[in-house]
Amino acid sequence: MKFEPGIGKRLAIGLPIAALTIFLDQLSKWLVLHHLPEARDGRVSVMPFIDFVVTWNHGVSFSMGTGTQYDRLIFAVLAVAVSAALVLWMAKGAKLLILISLGMVAGGAVGNCFDRVRFGAVEDFIYAHAGTLAFPAVFNVADSAICVGAALMVFDSLFDRPLSHKNTP
Question: For this structure, is 25 an active site residue?
């Protein structure tokens, strides 16, 4: 599905998605941190396959990085630069799915950046598992938005392509 809105309309689609992602991320982190003290000290079972447990990620994905002041600054600047590049891409994009995806990824990056600037680390709290099989990291709403947005972009690049004119008689 391709449509050709102007820059203002493209940003009017992508930026509210980013803002909603930031809002939901920060709200969920605040609620878990301030209204679920059990998650700070242990695990709170939410569903048979989801627990809330507060952890602080001082690095980047899967806790890579050492969490020094330099890491904090580098990761914050990198998140802002990536988000700015995504907004520029958003202004040039024409497909609805891509605009939504870019908004999710940009919002997730900014949501985690807010934590890094405020706390020096990113609050993660969602622990996914199925019996003894567990996801290898605790994550948050921003991380989820980044992954879903990236997956939607991959889906779009793989499956939403017009047929090549070379294949038609």
Answer: no
